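Here comes my example:
=====
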Amino acid sequence: MTVQETILSVRNLNKVYETPAAWGRAGTRTHVVHDVSFDIQRGEILGLMGESGSGKTTIGRLILQLLHATSGQVALEGCDLCGMTTQALRPLRARMQMIFQDPLFAFNPRHTVHQILGTPLRLHPELVERHGPVDEQIRHVLSQVGLPADVVHRYPKAFSGGQRQRIGIARALIMRPSLIVADEATSALDVCVQAQILNLLLDLRDELDLTILFIAHDLTAMGLVCDRVAVMLRGRIVEIAPTSELFSRPRHPYTASLLQAIPRIGTKAMPGVAPCMPGKGTQVQDGDGGCPFRMSCRWAVAQCAHNGTALRLLEKDHWSACVREDLDLPGL
């Protein structure tokens, strides 16, 4: 039996934004990430799925310490990152990298590809000592993402969207990270290029044993690349399971609603399961222990107003926050 190595462990992660009282108006307190916990194993791709505003990107930035958590723990290979000083975090930055949604805005337009890929190595000279000269590493990482070595003197504006995203992936890979956070890495690309980038990520995962947190709202992309998927709603994870199990047999009504919202040609919507209507719901308030989907859920019961936020293990590796364990919800 193979013992899995946990690369990332997130426990009880919270992020609260507070607006102070001013000009006669009371202060506000918005809980954007609420008590989130999950693990990612080495070589695994975990999908983080949800609507816009659900807190997906915030979690990615909290993991990378681009934002500071209000409370909770983020451990990378057993090292707790929360509360570390900037100086203490510096040597750990190389071990966790991000692929951004739009690489055109993630690059300095006045920098060539050589400068874009070489700058991280110059900031971490230990990588040059360990893995060889800068130029040699740049050529190697470009070949890994399917780009010729002669692109090094060109600027970002000279590339297509797919090529720019490959450069973004190369910039993450050149640091030889343990964890990559891919934040909507394919959503700005057309369908054909999306497929190429997804296949590239899968190939790199297999070749380099990468661990990836794949943040997206595209369920089709999730189904193609992710080993497990976590579903977020208003700052909370409401379901997490292996991809095939979650897509075929969802156990939370919100997940079922998302799956039924996928456009399909020549099929009718399943009776009794309408796509979710977030406008009918209410924002999760501090101290509200109820299910965040209850105002839009046709299966809601009185218990949902007081429970429905804690994940429960229903089957092997399948967790859901829904109190209605008796529901038989349709999948894909």
Summary: The radius of gyration is 21 Å.
